[in-house]
Specification:
Helix content is 77%, strand content 0%. It contains five helices and no strands. The two termini are 19 Å apart.
Length: 117
């Protein structure tokens, strides 16, 4: 590109070529932060500020440790495993909503790497 400075080359050449790699790294970071509940569990003490993953883990632990819940399981139409599976499905829905928008960058990255001119 004749006459272009470094920033124009960066935005018009390098950035379009690196979009698939940046989208992949961004998706991995989002999934990592979404599933990372340990630091939030350790640092946050206020019940109103805990993220969804910490709350769901707390619910699952309370369900498995609660003797009254397991005592009422005989008459209940659901079990601890059913409730845990429902909670896990609810926790992956946001990631499943983001992934289709990022899928096009994955396929572009695969196709771009194989094109020879």
């Amino acid at each position: 590109m004749d006459g272009a400075n470094e920033f124009q080359v960066l935005w018009k050449v390098y950035m379009p070529l690196s979009k698939p790699a940046l989208a992949t790294v961004a998706l991995f970071c989002v999934v990592s932060r979404w599933n990372g509940f340990f630091w939030a569990m350790v640092l946050l003490q206020d019940e109103d500020k805990i993220p969804l993953q910490v709350y769901l883990r707390k619910v699952i632990v309370e369900l498995t440790d609660d003797d009254t819940f397991s005592a009422t399981l005989i008459n209940a139409p659901y079990s601890v495993e059913t409730v845990s599976a429902a909670i896990i499905v609810c926790s992956i829905i946001p990631i499943l909503m983001i992934y289709p928008f990022m899928q096009k960058y994955f396929s572009k990255g695969i196709l771009m790497g194989g094109v020879k001119e």
